[in-house]
Amino acid sequence: MSGFFSGNRKKLLNVLEDGDLAILFAGAAPVKRGDENYPFTPDRNFYYVTGIDRENMIYVSGRIDGIEIERLYIEPDNGQQARWVGANMTPEEAEKASGIKDIKLVTDFNGDLECMSKTAKRLFLDFERVDLEEKFTAKGMREIFGLIPFEDLFPVFAEFRVIKEEYEIQLMRKAIEITRLGIEEMMKNAKSGMMEYEIEAYYDYVLKKYGVKDKAFQTIAASGINGTTLHYINNNCKTGAEDLILIDAGAQWGYYNGDISRTFPVSGKFTERQKTVYNIVLKGQQLIIENIKPGVLYPELNEMLKEYYFTELKKLGLAKSKEDVFDYYFHGVSHFIGAQTHDVGDRGQKLRPGMIISVEPGLYIAEWGIGIRIEDDALVTENGCEILTKDMIKTVDEIESFMAGAYKNG
Ligand SMILES: [Mn+2]
To answer: Where are the alpha helices (DSSP H) in 210-268?
Structure first.
């Protein structure tokens, strides 16, 4: 059990006043159809304070009459069913995994809730997804809690989670390292004429090999014109002789995500025009990286990039006014990364040390069949940033010599 999770429980208690009650649900896998479910992934705020990834559990925190509550509700022994789906956690296992001493059964939850509603003055729920549990919708809670005010836990957790602790940074380093190896495996094996999914398969193999259970998101392997569609995930086209392929991929490790994009020629050799556009994007990325430091307003980074692109697109004869930039670059340059690939946190704020953000300029020139995105993950430090993806090859020369087998990495 990591001290990270118990520390997070303390953080939560510290923002709660006497009479406050906070409730978090682990959630359950949605039904796919029949008796088949989608894979389960725990509610990230529940996981943040428990470190447990089991369905249907409930965490209650609060301070009533000066007494602190840190309680976990777990599912009862599932008896014979254990032979089909595995055993539920015992109270001892739940305590060992989370460090929470006060363990009760979910079957006690309703009765306890009635009881706690008599003394609670405010109820904190995560309103990012109010219908997480059918039985315990905000409406259901309202029936139990009468006129007691409801408060939203979501911004409270967003503020916690936007600053990463060492425990989280280590998990992300691992997720990023495996992502890097997976993308490099694609580069090593890509050849003109391959299907996009064939190239993707080399990435999947590496993730499996290193024990990755889940991806951060569906891999984008978009060749030629497909690279100009931002979230193309069909990956079922044949690559052309002179195509670039845009890869946007991320492995997940301990519920923390990597998120890397690289664009390379399937043949191993850039055309002159591709090289020109690639170097514009790369220089744009460098400009943003140099400007990442505490105090910079998040949206300023995107404005900086657009300004730079305007100058460059004018030289290419593609833009006459600043508005024309939107035809070739239409997403943001950055998002928070963490337990969600697009992690929580207000994107209007100033950068602070401990934030982890993507740096992902792209240019999508459909009329030339060129879609390029270069994405790295940056940890904001006291004086600037550390590029967590710095081991990943990136320049035209590095990519071409790596694909020719002349450049070894790692
Ligand atoms: Mn991204």
So the answer is: none
Q: In terms of Cα–Cα distance, which of 243, 247, 244, 242 is closest to 197?
A: 247
Nearest to 30 by CA among 40, 15, 45, 17: 40
Q: What angle do CA 142, 146, 151 make, to 5 degrees?
A: 60
Question: 374 C-alpha vs ligand 1 centroid, how far in Å?
Answer: 10
Place of tokens 């979230």: 231
Which of these, 239, 240, 237, 257, lies nearest to 248 by C-alpha position?
257
Residues of the chain with pLDDT under 50: 132
- Calculate how far, in angstroms, residue 336's C-alpha sits from the geometric centre of ligand 1: 9
Q: What is the DSSP letter of 238?
A: B
Question: How many other CB atoms are found less than 10 A from the CB of residue 96?
Answer: 12
In angstroms, the CA 329 to CA 76 distance is: 52
pLDDT at 410: 57
The answer to whether the beta carbons of residues 334 and 356 sit under 8 Å apart is no
What strands lie across the sheet with 244-249, from one edge to the other?
A: 220-223, 244-249, 260-265
Q: Report the separation in Å between the CA atom of 358 and the middle of ligand 1, taken as the mean of its atom positions.
A: 6
Cβ neighbourhood burial of 324 (10 Å; 0-12, 13-18, 19+): middle
CA of 221 to the centre of ligand 1 (A): 14
The confidence score (pLDDT) of residue 131 equals 52
Are 338 and 237 in contact by the 8 Å Cβ rule? The answer is no
Report the SS3 class of residue 264.
strand
300 alpha carbon to ligand 1 midpoint, in Å? Answer: 18
Q: What is the pLDDT of residue 245?
A: 98
Ligand 1 centroid–CA 259 distance in Å is: 5
Q: Tokens representing 236?
A: 């079922």
Are 45 and 27 in contact, with CB atoms under 8 Å apart?
no
